[in-house]
Structures are given as C-alpha cells and as structure tokens.
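Hello,

Following up on my earlier ticket. Below are the two sequence lines again, exactly as submitted.
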Amino acid sequence: MSLLISSPHTHSGKSVHSTMLLVMVALAPATIFGLYLFGLPAISLFLITILGCVLAEAMALKIMGKPVGKYLSDGSAILTGWLLAMSLPPTAPWWIGLLGAFLAIIIGKQVFGGIGQNLFNPAMVARVALLISFPLEMTTWVTVDGVSGATTLGHIRTETGQGHTLSSFTDSLPSVSDMGLGMIGGSMGETSAVLLLLGGLFLLWKRIITWHIPVSLLGTLLLLAGVMHAINPNVYPSVEVHLLAGATLLGAFFIATDLVTSPVSATGQLIFGAGCGLLVYVIRTWAGYPEGMAFAVLLMNAVTPLIDHYFRPRIYGRDRKGEPLNYASGENK
Amino acid sequence: MKLFRIRGGVHPHDCKTLSADKAIEDLPMPSLLHIPLQQHIGAAAKPAVKRGDHVLKGQLLANSQGMISAPIHAPTSGRVVGVGHYPAHHASGLSVHTITLQPDGKDEWVELFPPADPFALDPAEIATRVAAAGIVGMGGATFPSAVKLNLRNRYSLHTLVINGAECEPYLTCDDRIMREYSANVIDGIRVMAYALGVENIIIGIENNKPQAQAAMREAATAFPNIQVVGLPMRYPMGSEKHLVQTLTGLETPARGLTADIGIVVHNPATALAVRDALCEGKPLVSRVMTVSGGAIQQPRNLRVLLGTKVQDVIDYCQGFREEPTRLISGGPMMGNVLPDTRVPTVKGCNGILALTAKEVSENQESPCIRCASCVQACPCGLLPLEMAANARAGNLDAVTKLGLMDCIACGSCSYVCPAHIPLVQYFNYAKGELASRQRAKHKQDETKRLIEQRNERMAAQERAKKEMMERRKREAAAKKAAAAAAAAKTAQEASA
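Thanks for your patience. The regenerated structure is below:
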C-alpha cells in the first residue's frame, strides 16, 4: 500500500484504449459497407494501410526507446490507419496506403512526440501529402458499378468550371437517396451518409465527442450552401449535395472531432467547427480542389492552440476576465 | 423549488446500498483511546490534564488555542495513561500530540449544564457554547463551527443551508443521521439559524436518499421557514459553493465565502452535535461514521468514540473480506489514504473505506490525449489538462494563472481521465509548492525587515554615541576654556 496516493480512489473505467475502440465501433458500419461495395482491392488497401500504421508506430517507438507494447495497445495507430484508409480512393495502389501510413504516423504523429502531442490530424496530413504528391492515383475514382468516373463534387466542379449551369447536368448527378445510402463514387468510407451519421450519433451517445464540432461545422457549411444556392442555383450546388457528397459527414463526426487536435473548451470547439465548415465551403466552391475537408481540418488544427489560449471556460466565482465576482456593485444585492 | 444547474460534475457509482440500510450502532467500548490534540483546522489544543489523572466523560482534556481552534474532551471516563505522541489520522502516519486514555468502563458523564432554553440565550452565547463543546465541521472539513456561527458580525446573512447532499460514494452516515435523528437534527438546525440570525433554512438532500428526505420533511412540518429540497445526483453536489449555486443560482465570488452572498452552510451531523451541546450540554465526544468498501466483511454505520483505533472499528465489522488495496478515511473521491489500522478516528472522519483493487481500478498513467473529458467534468471551469502539464513542467506561475487556487480538489477530472493521469496529485503538489514558496517569501521579507530594523537601530546607536562624544568634547573644551579663563583671571589678580 503506497502512501503517496492522492484522491480520487476510484475511476470511471474509461481508458485511451476503450476510447479508440469505441471510435472504431462507430466507424465499422460505414467501413464494412464501403469494403463490401468496392470489394477486394478496397479490403487489401484497408488492411495494408492499418498494418503500415502499426508497423510505423512500432518502429518509431522502438527508435525512441518507448515501451512498444504499451503504446501499440492503445489502438491509436490502428485508428489513424483506419481513418486514412477511409479517405483514400478504394482502388488506389497498395503502396499509396503504405506510404500514407508512414507519413501519417511518422511525420504526422511521432515527430511531434507521439500520442497526444501532434498538432495536426495524422490521417489528414498523410492524405494531403499523398494528394499533392500523387494527384493521379489520388483522384481516380470508381463508381459502384465499376466504371471509373469523378466524384459528385468533382463532377460538379468540372462542369461548372466549363461554364455549364448546374441544371444542365442534374441528370448526370446521383440522386439524393443514392448519395444518402452511399451508392456513389468517392473515398472508401465517405460514401454512405446514413451509416456515417449513425456512427456519429453513437459517438455522441457514448460521450466520446460532444455535439459542438459536428453541429457548428455542419451548420456553417449548410447555411453557406443554402444561402449561396438561393442566390444562384445554377452555379452553387444545393444543401443536400454539400451534406451528402464528399467527406462532409466523415469529417464532421470523425475527422474534425479528433480529440488531440481540436480545442478543449465548448466555445473553442464551436469556433473550430465553424471555421472548418467555412473553409470546406470556400475550398469546394472557389479553390483548386473539389473536396476541401482535409485542408479545412488541417488549417483549423493550426489555429487550435490559439483558440485554446483565447477561449477558456469561465472559472467558477470569476468573471470572463478572471476577476472575482463582485456582488456589492452587481445586480445580486 | 426551482433548482439551478451547475457546471460539469460526474456520476460515480454511489455504492451506498452496501451500508444504507444498516441502522447506526454504538461501537463497544474500546480498550484504549488515542485522542489527537489536532482534530480540526487551526491551532492544536493544549493539554489540560496530565498522566495519571482520572477524567469523566465529557471532561476537558485540552484547551482551544487562539481564534481558530477547538478544545478536546474525554470520550469516556477513565485514566489518562499518556500525554505524548501517536501516529496521526493522516497519510503520513507521523506522530502527533495525542492524549491516551484508558476507559474505566463506567462511561460516567461529567456534570452537564445545559441551558434551560437555548433560544433564550444571546446568539453570541450559543457560538461560545458551540466553541466550548469542541464542535467542528463534521462533513470532513473540520473547520471550527463557532467561527462560522459568528459570521453574522461581519456579513449580512439571510439563509442557512444544510448540506445533506452526501455526494461521496459509499458514505451513508449523514443519510442515517437524517433518517434516525431527524427531530434532533431539526432542533440543531433551528439553534444554528437562531445563532446566525437568519430566518430562511434550506435542507438539500440528494435524490438517492428518499427516506432521509421524507424523515426530514416530516420533522420540519411544524416549521414553515424550513424547506427540504431534493437535489439531483451529481458529484460534487456537496461542495458548498456548488450546493448554494444549485439552490439559489448565486455563485460565491472566487477566494470568498458563501457568506459573501449571505449564506452559511452546515452539515447535518454538525447540527446534531450542536443540538447535543445546547440541549443536553454535551461536548463532542463521538461521531457517526460509515465503514464500508468491498474489502469489509460487514459494512456498517457506527457511532464511534473519538480516539478509537481504526482497527477496533474494522474488527467490529468482522474484519476484512480480503486484503484491501487501499484504506481510506472519508469518501473515495476526496478521502485520504490511511497508513495503517493503528491510527485513531477523529472528528472529521465520516467514513472508513477498505477498497479492493477492482474498486480502486488503479492504472498506469499514459500521455494526455487532450480528450477534454476533464474540462467537461470540472465543476469550476478550469482546464485540468493544461494545469497538470504546467505543474509537471514546474511552471508554478502558469498553473496559478490558470486558476490553481480555484480548484476544489473534487477529483472529477482524475475520475474521468482515460489516460489515468493523477491530476489532483499534480494540483496538490503545485498547491504545496506555492504555499512553501509563499512561506519562504514571507520569511525572506521578515528577515529583510528585521535586518533593516537592526541596521537602523545600529545607526541610531552610532549616531547617539557620536553625539554623546561630541557633547562630551564640547563640555570638556568648555571646561578647559573656563579653567583657562579662571587661571588667567587668577594670574591677572595675582599680578595686579
């Protein structure tokens, strides 16, 4: 019995391991659906990416002289690999997955000092690095029926970029129900909006994440989409397209909410989410890429320390400035 | 009554069923009592007896010292067999001043002088009697109750809140007291309200104690100024500042007292002790405590004479079911580890818990993943993760700036931390460092002041010496001159 133990002498039973596990459980339905949809190449890419992450993590831990077993068993490397695999084109070559895994774990996480220390979301670091380095492999999409083609957002982007109005090619866009169920082209895990939403709700229910980031992200994005679509429906896609296509739901519930790289206070999370939503819309609409979730999240990751510094919860018994409450001159007496 | 929401908090499994249905029993007379002279916040009491003295139950053993202190009384009749040292009821187990009493088995009370009617006394007299009875905050804080009853002199008070939240898991002693002695507790509460000069009384009891709520409501029916309010179950509801906020919506200013917003908070067990002191003239010589935890054979609620060894208490509960991983005084959220079962029970000990490894769920610390669970759980709006990181780096100023002194050490952050970071431990460390730094600074300032004073004194002495010498020199010169003049005069006269 050691004496130098401070209270509390009981614990909620939560652990890093169980937290990661619950996120994986939440991701499972959309993942399984994606793997089923895209078949063998997707399955092998998924496994290679995860194995790559575990391997990279083990190597990095070994080199740094940290206990490999302890840190590997927290499941964070597996989750990083999982999220990265979800954001890759399902038919990307195997080396994309492996390279991405090493980028995510080594450049995205371990050089910062390992779990909890990274400034940027490791999976998104890898995705963006791959996208910029291998644009061809990273933008070759396959639709459900095996025909290669662009993603919904990519298609809209190309067409409107050529001066066509939206209404002139609506017929070539997937229906809302197809997008909702996931019968469209896109990254492995970002196709089925319904299953991603289900996973997100599970995370909220299990209190792994709070509502602040998903709500403010989706709210900002959809508000902008709604307003712009109302202004000019011929150029700006509708709210449904922005909600259901691309990485919107995967990003809102699983990427932007990454615990390590998002702000800690409720206000900070609202600002962070709104920033992501705004950037996603701006990038999708006016920047060079049809899809902007990864860039938006990384940019907001960069300002997370700043948000954390300026937006702190109000301390009990103090005003926002940190001065003790003064009832003598206040309204309470 | 409308309740207000407090920030954060956690919902630990309350584990109260282990002992909630066990009526309060008197522990059989132990063979020896070790009564520490410091069982309260403030100055330790000073012995008023010597080895070999025979004392009666309730007789004064040690006098209160100074403004914030409390006297100690004999828990039973018997012989003082030692005025010396004994391991403290504290994690350190260090030896502290202790009076050892060998009971004679007669349990004979000293002559008691209860007032005919407490409500006929001057309010200040009630506080004096509460002080003389050695009553301290029985919820565990052990702050001398009389000091709190005297707050009417400095603050304009309007409400007395009775803290029957008992939000710590396992503990059921306040629950049992409110169920079994509801009328006496109400009497004590009324005396305290009278002493404070307040009319409005609110008794807050968490909703996991419906029988206590019913009993207190029943006992309070005759008094329309007393409200019994059910509180939502959320730890730390029993933190007095958060309890007051839940009941009134008012926040106590940082570094202030609830008295700043006109409210004084007392515990039901304290109310019972006040009633015994004012209605029967009895000083505080025993207390009710919960003995529980997975490692205890038969969890119970016991009335224990102060100074009884923890071992005696555990023996009465049929000992351990298994070797406990941790032995705790108080509740699992804020209690302290006890070094072993030899230590005596004291006024502030509301529970003795023997917890199994499963209950403690100890785990190795891993790096923070910034999940912000601690930020959500903190009832004070602090950033435990940032504070701990700075404390670990030894960056004391940063921790203080982040609100270290606003931390109530409730343990909600550590409770939810998935990385099992001992956040409270870091904060306790930082608080200790801060206190020792302040002490060092104080000492330095005092030393500086003394040195400056000494220098001044020496300079003044030097000056006085110099002046004296100069005066003497002048006097001598004057004398010489006078002598010379006289000589010249004589010479003149002689020559004339």
